[in-house]
Amino acid sequence: MNDTIRKLIDEHGRLSVPASSLKDDQDLYETGLTSFAAVQLMLGLEDAFDIEFPERMLNRRSFATIATIASCISELTNIEPAKKIAS
User: Fold this and answer.
1) Domains along the chain?
2) What's the half-sphere exposure (Cβ side, CA atoms, 13 Å) at 73?
3) Is residue 79 pLDDT above 90, yes or no?
4) In this predicted structure, what is the pLDDT of residue 78?
């Protein structure tokens, strides 16, 4: 799931850095995500995961990090977000 989210961030997020360089809990808005780009990202996520974000998730907090996006998608699809393996 996180790989798909990162791919979509690269396609729609208009960030100055590749999504692969971001930590799951890094603030996307601090790395350059705009409100317009967040809407484009949301539409891409809806298409990719065949979901529709409910109104209660249409806020800055839901799209703030890769982890929060994955959590929202997990809630809507019952697909578990990827877990980091401790090294």
Assistant:
1) 2-77 (1.10.1200.10)
2) 25
3) no
4) 81
Phi, psi of 82 (to 5 degrees): -65, 140
Q: Are 64 and 37 contacting, i.e. CB atoms less than 8 angstroms apart?
A: no
pLDDT the model gives residue 20: 96
For residue 85, pLDDT over 50 is answered with no
Query: What Rg do the C-alpha atoms of the chain give, in angstroms?
Result: 12
Q: Which residues contact 67 (CB under 8 A, 6 or more apart)?
A: 24, 25, 81
DSSP assignment of 31-65 equals TT--HHHHHHHHHHHHHHHT----GGG-SGGGGSS
Residue with tokens 């949301």: 42
Q: What is the pTM of this model?
A: 0.88
